Amino acid sequence: MGDDGVGLAAPQVGVNVRLMVFNPMGRDKPGNESILVNPEIVEQLGGKELGEEGCLSFPRIYGDVERSRQINVKALDATGQPVKLTLTDPWVARIFQHEFDHLQGVLFHDRMKPSVLETVRPELVALEEAFLAEHPAAKVQRLAPAKGAKGFGAPKK
Question: InterPro entries per the record (predicted)?
């Protein structure tokens, strides 16, 4: 997977298809990648847990996100054959859900609790500012910080 990632969804690299690839071992065990096309979560099992996540699309930004511990999934494999998976390892289930969210247009910080989001807001704003500096015509829609937010990212008075 390069860049110490364990998963990647096609939209992250500008390809508008419902495809993801993941390898829970990352670069430690290349060749163990799972490729899933048109994946769906069929059932969420085993309760939920909070865990730290990062994303290749948002370098060096980490925060806790709540995810299902176990899930049942259906998809097509790389050859177009239907597959059904029961992801009982919470780490693997988390990776799948993170990449699946990309296919739904949801980003990991969209799933953070407001208090966690506020801890990463400065880094997100800095990425937006860097993007705007390179693409002056682009428009960025920013969400207002949580009430009571102070410091960088708080509304100016």
Answer: Peptide_deformylase, Peptide_deformylase_sf
